[in-house]
Amino acid sequence: MKIGIISDTHDNLVKIREAVKIFNEHEVDFVFHAGDFIAPFSLDPFQELRCDWAGVFGNNDGEKEGLSKKSGGRIKPPPLLWEAQEKKIAVTHQFSPVEAQIIISGHTHHPQIEKVGDKLLINPGEACGWLTEKSSLVILDLQSLYPKLVYF
Fold first, then answer.
1. From CA 118, how far away is CA 107, in angstroms rounded?
2. Chain centroid to CA 49
3. Based on CB atoms within 10 Å of each CB, which residue in 27, 63, 85, 125 is the most buried?
């Protein structure tokens, strides 16, 4: 099973469309968004995903009701807890210790992948590219726990 991981899209529709295209090309089975969508219109490109997705609110997501409604309830307050292939996954925006094997966060706009004990910590960096001028996402193979950082 392959999981797509993205964060901090910040209304950048061009980059969101590129990310969706990458996820579809890699045939991911599910996508997690670690927050900071910003406005409900930024969810439109997610309709092109060939898999289901879920996400959490970030600190800049002020229009929570609109985001929740437009996403069909897929966006929730963190942490979002999920289990697949006997692996517990937690999605937050700002990193916080959660009881899970895989902890996904965003917020810093800088990618970071780190193994700490039995936990895999993944921050895909910013998809929007506004702060670092580098857009990034992660594709995670749940079987091997190999995270691939993709710049686009």
1. 23
2. 13
3. 125
What integer is the mean pLDDT of 5-10? Answer: 99
Written in H, E and C, the secondary structure of the chain is CEEEEECCCCCCHHHHHHHHHHHHHCCCCEEEECCCCCCHHHHHHHHHCCCEEEEECCCCCCCHHHHHHHCCCCEECCCEEEEECCEEEEECCCCCCCCCCEEECCCCCCEEEEEECCEEEEEECCCCCCCCCCCEEEEEECCCCEEEEEEC
pTM of the model: 0.97
> What is the CATH number assigned to the segment(s) 2-151?
3.60.21.10
The per-residue pLDDT for 3 is 99
pLDDT average, residue stretch 11-32 = 99
